[in-house]
Design a protein that fits this description.
Blueprint: E1 17-21, H1 26-37, E2 41-46, H2 49-63, E3 67-71, H3 77-91, E4 96-99, H4 115-140, E5 147-153, H5 164-183, E6 189-195, H6 201-205, H7 210-215, H8 229-240, E7 250-254
Parallel strand pairs: 1-2, 1-4, 2-3, 4-5, 5-6, 6-7
Helix pairs in contact: 1-2, 1-8, 3-4, 4-5
EC number: 1.1.1.159
Organism: Hansschlegelia beijingensis
Keywords: NADP, Oxidoreductase
Amino acid sequence: MARAYDAFAEFRMTGHNVVVTGGAQNIGAGIARSLAGAGARVMIADLNGEKAAETAAAIAAETGQDCRGMACDVTDEAAIRAVVAATADAFGGISTLVNNVGWGGRHPDPTAISEEDFVQSYKLNAISAYRMSMACLPYLEQAENAAIANSSSFSAATPAYDILAYATAKAALTQMMVSIAHMLSRKVRVNSLLIGTVMTAGYGEAGIDPAMQDRLMHPDNLVGRTGRPQDVANAMLWLCSPAGGWVSGQTINVHGGGGVVRLFGD
């Protein structure tokens, strides 16, 4: 009897070795969990090394896959090199990089953002992804279905003046990664997600309160809800797996559909 057709075969990541930055919690943890659940070996690199190890242990127990965590300040080039070396040593190579790390605070008065605010935002949200990508590149170039996937933000493509430093840094990330996709043509696939509001602890730290969340229930949000980490993880699995093998140089919206919704009041 012929084996039944498996429509999910190309979403499996057995044999793939993945680095997920900012993967200790929230969206990053969801991404790490889904990729491990699809069969990948995963290294979680996070500023909070203790939380990264804790999350990795939970994912390994749940999925049965080799999942590890270690501390990494992605604005520190030496720390990036250490994560890349540790991952390659543990897994025998790197086939997939998810540049998920990123954060941005609220600036209610966009005329009062300091130069240092912009510099730090670019270092964390854009330059770190470039450095991590280049550090992984020698391994990615040797891998089958090598992929870089980036967590960008819907604020990179729509007016977001109350989170101006973050939004402009994410816009830089998006443009940079399209250029890198062309630079690495036929060697490594490179794509980004423009992610909408996913209600996690991180958004609370950025100042989004329940009243602001209610404002997101706007007619322009076609799905009618804010996002879940799993919504983003599902899209990342597609982009990173062989199922996304004909997709590169793309910026894909994952935000519930619709148009502009301002997050903050005046």
